Amino acid sequence: MRRYGIIGTGAIGGYYGGRLQQAGYDVHFLTRSDYPALQTQGLRVDSVFGDFVLPQVQAYDNAADMPPCDVVVVALKATQNHYLAQILPPLLGENTTLVLLQNGLGVEPELAAQFPSTTILGGLCFVCAQKVGPGHIRHLDYEAIALAQYGPHYAPQGITPILEAIATDFAAAGIEIHAKPHLMQSRWEKLVWNIPYNGLSVVLNAQTDQLMANPATRALVEDLMAEVAQGAAACGCEITPAIITKMLAHTEAMTPYLTSMKLDYDRQQPLELEAIVGNPLRFAQSGGAILPKITMLHQQLQFLNTANLRN
Amino acid sequence: MRRYGIIGTGAIGGYYGGRLQQAGYDVHFLTRSDYPALQTQGLRVDSVFGDFVLPQVQAYDNAADMPPCDVVVVALKATQNHYLAQILPPLLGENTTLVLLQNGLGVEPELAAQFPSTTILGGLCFVCAQKVGPGHIRHLDYEAIALAQYGPHYAPQGITPILEAIATDFAAAGIEIHAKPHLMQSRWEKLVWNIPYNGLSVVLNAQTDQLMANPATRALVEDLMAEVAQGAAACGCEITPAIITKMLAHTEAMTPYLTSMKLDYDRQQPLELEAIVGNPLRFAQSGGAILPKITMLHQQLQFLNTANLRN
């Protein structure tokens, strides 16, 4: 049975790590602010799929105290990835697999450069969850993960044995998981949603339902999605009109929602701006695509992020 | 000596109308909210070019009480132009000239359709002034007007006798005024400033100096100006690189400044959105230009304007 290390015990790390431990896996949680709570009270997850409490968890506030793990799940905000160079080495054995549960594009090549002999998987989480207190996660809706193996320059790797094995562990823990053959394709598919809604929710101080209700911003959302499709095409990926139609319908059916970038903004935390907007833009531009509206969104978000952190 | 009617005694109408009366012209002021103050205390102008008080002014709160005028100066916000169909008829004699001191594009053709036998001039004001109380204007900087005659479809009219005569009146009142041959060219030149700074100040809650200090928004300002130049070209006008360079340098040298659109937004008043952004966009599109960033700015401002007026 594989041993899991969870880097960051926020909504994502707490929920999925909690599910794995609940299913009997040997899970080790790294946390900074929640260490005392996890030590004394354990981990509590209020979930639409059934609440659960883990009275005892293996929690650490220092990666150096953690054992080497078979699978290390990175569940930090992408803005904190600069800590990984220090955090990861004690956790990495010869056959450790890194699983990045992060949004955006361009995070894997950075880690691949730092840890060239480590297998890296990337995961996209389709989940509504938030940390509501120390060691206390509220899981509101969905839980699916799209998981795929990273290869140099995001070349498609297919369904590899380690990808299949880890997906099987997650599935055994009751988590809806989809093993995917092409990580970059999966990442662009999620960007169809993330770029317009994360970006505009911050710039226009708006929830998803408000953006959809106003005809001008509804049109802008579609324009941005069309540019994401152009960007994907410039990277050899394909966003079909059906994917866009599905995202729009899905968002209209959703409960009004503050995006993760908007939540970060309101808490005056750094935005995942480069992972979600800047890197995709640069990948698309290297492939020859010109994306004026995403460029403008990036420019506006850079301004707001800087002003927000200065206040 | 020509008789002037001033429609709207805010910062623009109060300042220029006050200067005309100070110089001895027969000036009649239409005002709504400031009627009692103008009747009892007259008009007070605190100006960088010298303060002055006009203890007695001819003020009206109903256009039907006003005499026909030789020149009717419209100094309302463009968002209030729907009142003009009712306001103007009593003021228009056979030889009355309308002078629109308003920003943006597309206001003259609407009035020309309503008053086909009236000569229309358009004026662009380069002035920092604000109303600080009833019948009390503060004039902070600049005062130049670019004035030109309107002709069907904005065809250039050259320097006509009536344009020259009215410019001479303004100059006699000590106002810096420039008679211009091509109204649409003058309007596009002002849009080089108005579209980026008015628009972004609202969307990003920012002053001009903050937009210039951040490299991302500084680049966005330049991108938007380049699109204004493309729009102008599609309308047969020319925005040279020198005009853009001058606008940027000028803005960098300016005192930090909240734009008129931002002031309207903060007072929860309707934005001059169609005059300043929507109409120029449509004129440019009819000429075949595609302006994605101005389109996006327009979409964002429509959303914010609607949300702002609803609150």
Summarize the structure.
The first copy, chain A, is built from twelve helices and ten strands. Chain A has helices at residues 11-22, 35-41, 84-87, 107-114, 161-172, 183-203, 208-213, 215-234, 241-253, 260-266, 273-286, 292-310, and strands spanning 3-7, 26-30, 43-47, 52-54, 58-60, 69-74, 92-101, 119-133, 136-149, 177-180.
Largest sheet of chain A: 10 strands, mixed
Q: What overall geometry of chain A do the principal axes of the alpha carbons give?
A: globular
Strand tally of chain A, please? 10
Rg of chain A (C-alpha, Å) = 19 Å
Supply the number of helical segments of chain A.
Answer: 12
Mean pLDDT rating of chain A: 96
Assigned CATH superfamily of the largest domain in chain A? NAD(P)-binding Rossmann-like Domain
Proportion of helical residues of chain A: 40-55%
* Oligomer category: homodimer
Task: Tell me what you see in this structure.
The structure is a homodimer of 311-residue chains. Chain A has 311 residues and is α/β, with parallel strands linked by helices. The first copy, chain A, folds into two domains: 3-181, 3-Layer(aba) Sandwich (Rossmann fold); 185-310, N-(1-d-carboxylethyl)-l-norvaline Dehydrogenase, domain 2 (Orthogonal Bundle), CATH 1.10.1040. Chain A is built from twelve helices and ten strands. In chain A, β6, α3 and β7 form a beta-alpha-beta unit. The mean pLDDT of chain A is 96. The A-B interface holds A 200, 203-204, 206, 210-211, 214, 216-217, 219-220, 223, 292-293, 295-300, 302-304, 306-307 and B 200, 203-204, 206, 210-211, 214, 216-217, 219-220, 223, 292-293, 295-300, 302-304, 306-307.
